[in-house]
Amino acid sequence: MTVIKKSSRMLERPTQMKEETKTFIIMVKINGQEAIVLLDSGCTMEAISLEMVQIVGLKVHQLMEQIPIQLGTKGSKSQINHGTKACIKIGTVGNYHYFDIINIDRYDVIIGMVFMKQHEIVLDFEKDQVRMRGKKLYVLCESADEYLQVHRQAMEHSKTLQNKKVIQNETK
Q: Where are the alpha helices (DSSP H) in 19-82?
């Protein structure tokens, strides 16, 4: 039996600065549809939300074996029951890839370390940059209370890219 000493005094949890809680979020295309992606350096899988599966119209496959989702806490009972394959395009690189379908709260897709290593995606915490094969990727700014701002930034970035394509086509 484990014995822990409990203090009678309350402890205030330290607050974190907005910059300290920033995560790396990028835009990708899943089967041609814009998607908000969390790059998770502590994750060993690639996952897609059921909502994104429905939006894109992906086929859902039941897995032969249910896989428990391993979190850093005890007692988690979530399991992966379904998977899918989709074309993921990051910048100019496109790849057909397997995704676990899970209940994701704030993002369309989560990309883990296996995918990042395979595609040479580097998270530079010092410079707040993401690079893929040496090229800098556009990173969306986000903190816990600014989820809607991420969507607005994503839409603005998408419009900027579309405008650049229109200008390039007009100059040809």
A: 50-56
Q: Residues 108-117: pLDDT tens digits?
A: 999 999 999 9
pLDDT band at residue 144, thresholds of 50, 70 and 90?
very low
Residue 110, in any domain of the structure: yes
Number of C-beta neighbours around residue 80 at 10 A = 16
**Helix boundaries (H) for the chain:** 50-56, 113-118, 147-171
Establish if 16 belongs to a structural domain: no
CA 49 to mean position of chain CA atoms: 10
The residue with tokens 């992606």 is 37
| Domain with 95 in it | 23-171
Residues whose CB falls within 8 Å of the CB of residue 36, separated by 6 or more in sequence, listed in order: 25, 27, 107, 108, 109, 140, 150, 151, 154
Q: Which of 19-28, 69-78, 123-132, 159-168 has the lowest mean pLDDT?
A: 159-168
pLDDT at 148 over 60: no
**Which residues lie below 8 Å from residue 22, measured CB to CB, with a gap of 6+?**
128, 141, 142, 143
13 part of a folded domain: no
**Total number of domains in the chain:** 1
Q: Is residue 6 part of a domain?
A: no
CATH number, domain of 71, equals: 2.40.70.10
